[in-house]
Amino acid sequence: MHDDAIEPFFATLAAANPSPQTELEFTSVFELLCAVLLSAQATDVGVNKATKRLFARAPTPQRLLDLGLDQVTESIRTIGLFRTKAKNLIQTCRILVEQHGGEVPRSREALEALPGVGRKTANVVLNVAFGEPTMAVDTHIFRVANRTGLAPGKTPLAVELKLLERVPPKYAVDAHHWLILHGRYVCQARRPQCERCAVHRWCDSAASTMPAEG
User: Fold this and answer.
1) Which SUPFAM superfamilies match (predicted)?
2) Is the model's pTM score more than 0.70?
3) Is the N or the C terminus of the chain less surrounded, counting Cβ atoms within 10 Å?
């Protein structure tokens, strides 16, 4: 994707969805952290079903600790890797209570020190909760960035760094939401829906498959 295509690419996505949101359901920064931690190798829909029950019973780190490992495990057993995630959740809550006064820290370093929280999870929390212009590269963003030529890279970190370099500042806070949603609903893995893609004219891959603009 040429540099001069990036502005209209994002302007088009922004016009279609001016205030993009994560599809995970939460009512606090703590609930967001939990939801993102649970979302690895799981769908947002599946996570939302499980967290609805869990958050009703344990909306704070201390309340979740009080529930105990067995009940947390049972609450999220419909999610992939639920046993490991339950242990990470309990350990994360213990650290939040003991080291951060029950609050979710605002620094990347402190977030990544939490069990089960990697760079992508930290990026989501920093972006969604604290409005930082981070790029949480999941499978959808990795695919869209490479397929369109926006930010080609062989690893999620390479794609993230390229996005930080190429996405115009005014679009930076919302960019990862637009790219995730675009990948989830339009630029899909098995069959990208180029014929209904609003940004196909700036996409490196679509250029050869779409009819010429009249």
Assistant:
1) DNA-glycosylase (SSF48150)
2) yes
3) C
